[in-house]
Amino acid sequence: xxxxxxxxxGGTDVADDEGEGxxxxxxxxxxxxxxxxxxxxxxxxxxxxxxxxxxxxxxxHLNELAELILSQPLVGTTxxxxxxxxxxxxVLTVLNMHVHKDHPSIKALSAYAQxxxxxxxxxxxxxxxxxxxxxxxxxxxxxxxxxxxxxNMPVQVIPPMYRMxxxxxxxxxxDNEPYxxxxxxxxxxxxxxxxxxxxxxxxSNHNQRPSKRQKGRPPLQTGNTNSGxxxxxxxxxxxxxxxxxxxxxxxxxxxxxxxxxxxxxxDADAFGLxxxxxxxxxxxxxxxxxxxxxxxxxxxxx
Length: 302
Known about the structure:
The chain has a domain at 89-297. It is built from 8 helices and 9 strands. It has helices at 42-53, 62-70, 104-116, 121-131, 158-174, 195-207, 245-251, 287-297, and strands spanning 8-15, 24-34, 77-80, 90-96, 141-149, 181-193, 237-240, 254-258, 274-283.
């Protein structure tokens, strides 16, 4: 199941360091795809895990989670620019929550998903059926999809990563390895804006040339909040950090947006984004169609 190195051209904006008014230029970057590297990827995986789980990161035993991801180097993909020994800028993999049911990170993820799905009883019932101690003994295995990348990584790296993941799952099945899933579980990041904040950001995106400060800000995406899962307050709306999440959500049988357990309350004068989370449960037999949709939507410009 060895992965071939697959270079891919991608553009990225780079601003001159001499001032806010400097012109923005476009440079070409070779993004290369590698198997996870147990020798060098550990620290980067921990950093990406902290970014993914945000204020709740300490709940998930990140040292052990990084080790678990790196223990299966033939499933999953990292994206790098300086060769196999460099730090990954993006990671995508899947972990079998049934095979690793006694692992501290998987136990924490299972408990977290059951707790955060409680606002939608049908969702929680499904999660409990799949991930309760009894469910974890069943033949319906759940794969936890770990997907995170550095800010400003182009979304066009995502479709090939998912194509490789689907291929690797099939190769693993051909070798009688435990990657036969009934469902895929996604945890991802969201943020919330008031109507006023959204209008200001929309105007900024349309009317101003990006400055160095603006380039660290997530792009405004069309947000979705499922019935029964709206955790916004006073007219706020929920948006995805990762644009592909809007498509993953469309393939999900259940989805919920939730408040982070360890986040501090955000008052009207607080600086920074009001961040939250989203859980999505996707039937595994929809993965092929999801991969095709992402490939069609985020094709690399020719």
